[in-house]
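Input chain follows. Return structure tokens only.
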Amino acid sequence: MLRKLLERAGMEGKTLEEAAGKLAKGEAKLKDFTSPTVRLHPPVGGYKAIKKPYGMGGTLGYRGKNINELLERML
């Protein structure tokens, strides 16, 4: 996931591998390598129900560990 976000932010090649390693180990922060702003598209397949909370089968609110599923659909 981290690699995809860095690619999306414009990092490539050897620098990408170094950055991903340092970020994963906690030795550096994202702002050390690139702008912390990463623009994402709406999720592929759209949102389910935007008026219902996530816990009730909707899209709205805190997802906990399931946030990665949404990010994958947005990359």
